Every structure is written in structure tokens, then in C-alpha cells.
Hints:
By secondary structure, this protein is an all-alpha fold. It is built from 16 helices and no strands. It has a domain at 222-227 and 234-338. The model has no long low-confidence stretch (mean pLDDT 92).
Amino acid sequence: MNRKGFFRTALGAAVSITLADLAQFAQPAEVPKAVQAADILELRTIAGVFSAWDHTYGGGLVRDAVNAQLRYSVSLLQHSTCPRALHDELYVAVGWLGHSAAAMAFDAYAHDDARRMFRLALSCAEEAGDWHLRAKVLSLMARQAIWCGDADDGLTLVELALVRADRLTPAERAMLYTARARAMAKLGMVEGTLESVGKADEQFTRIRPADERPWMRYYDAAQHAGDTGHAMFDLALKQSDRFAAAASQRLGTAVEGHVAPYVRSRAISGIKLASLTMATGDPDEAAVIGMRAIGDAGKVRSCRAQDDMRELHRLAQPHDGRTPVAELRHQIRTAIQA
């Protein structure tokens, strides 16, 4: 009997066992009786890995993995003893992982899951008395609220995060002011938006990367330009004569500045730039920008990117008679259906 025949016979004897059956594991990972510094280091590493994966590929593919790791991490808090000296570090590590899991759920539109994970992460930050993680969690909670159409709640969350802003780093303050600008732009608060963008710009000039927490290392010039550009985008669609050029410049800076590990951010900023150009500028130029952005979006699994593509598809409809625009709309439909 050849090798293939042997395996077919062996599998035939267990034909009733499915792959799903084989993937059911009865022996869960056991948590240690006592937390050690090495356990916390592992949690930080895992949180960083999942966060990096989310930025590059989107969270859809590995959400189950990060959720399982988060459950294990919470069991450390509940069932393992922890020396007082490691208490805060443990809660911060679990909180960072919770934030990473919530970010993935948000991007996958599992909004209820994201909200629960954000609350978990925020509870961990407050238990540890860590103002930096607290600001990061509240910032993304605000962005989720804004994305879901509740800009007023988003603004409230940002203002809550800015309490005792003197305790935060420049990158954290810049991040929060950009979130405030995005909320205010959605609410039509033009002067408040411009003031917040100005404050964010001023804080960005003060950043010293070595002083920032690991979860803030993503906040570079491209990220700042993209975040402020998104706020200006909403103003530009309402008052293009005043704000279109500023929004376009910032979004263009983001697209050119985002490197490969942040391809989702590059895709989203590129789609926004194409939408802005389609609405206020040259449709053919917008089509060129949009085709590049859709290529980037095809590398990630992101519900947010897909919704932005739908917006671009809608804004392009009046120009569908132009060949480049028609091809762009076709590519969007193909990408969304994939």
C-alpha cells in the first residue's frame, strides 16, 4: 500500500470525525498560580503583535485569537495572585491587550464586542491609575462613537480624556485634540474644529518619540496628517472653497507618509482624498488616487475601509460618463463583493 492509500484508509476509519470536531480542544490553558514579571512581558508582547497585525491587515482574521488571549489574561486577574509591586503593570498589560482587541472588533463592526472590550480596558487603566492608557482607550471609544453617528457622545468622551491633560504626553494630547476636531466637524462646529486642529498641530511639534508609551508609537507625522485631514474633510464637503485645499494637503501627506505596516491607514486616507477630489476637484485625478487606494484596501480586511469605498462610489456617480471614473466604480464594486 502506498503512502496516499494508507492515509485514505486511516481517514476512512474516522470518516464521522469532521475538521470542526478535530478543532474542539478540551484542555484549556492553565493560568499560573502567581503572576511573574515574565508573564507581564509576554502580555505586552502579545498586545503589541496584535496591534501591529491590526494596523497592517485589519482585525477580521485573528479576532478569535485575540479574544481567546484576552479571556486568558482576564483569568490572570481573577485567579492568579499578583505581588503588589506588579499589580499596576499587570493591569496595564491586560488593558492594552483589551484595547487592541476592541480596536479589531471596531474595525470589524462588532460594535457591541468593541464597547465591552473598551470598558474592560478602561477599567484596567483606572485600576492601575494609568492616565496614558486611559487617554488611549477613551480616544478610540470616542472615535467609535463618532463613526457610529454619535459625534456628541464622542465629544464627551474626548473631553473626559482631556481631564488633567497636563499628565499626558504631547502625542496623547495631539491624538485627543484630533479626535475632538473630528467630533466637532461632524457637529458642524467650524471654529471649534479649527481651534482643535491648531492645538493638535502645536502639540505634535513637541513630541519626543522616546518618551511615548508603546501604544503611541504609531502616532507619527503621517498619522497626525491623516487624523487632522479627516476632520478637515468634513468641513470641506460643506464649505469646499474654504477648506478643500487644507484637507487635501493633509490627506495627501498621510498617503505619502504611511509606510507598509500602516497600509490600512494609507488606504483609508487615500480613499478620503479621492472622495474629496471627486467632490471638489478633478474627477479624473480622483479616479487615479482612488485606484491606488483601492489597491491598498484590498490588502486588509476592514469594514471601515469598505464603507469609505462605498462613499467614494456614491460621490463618483455623477461623473460615471468619464472612462476613468467608470472603471473606478467598477473596481470598487468588485472590491466590496470580494
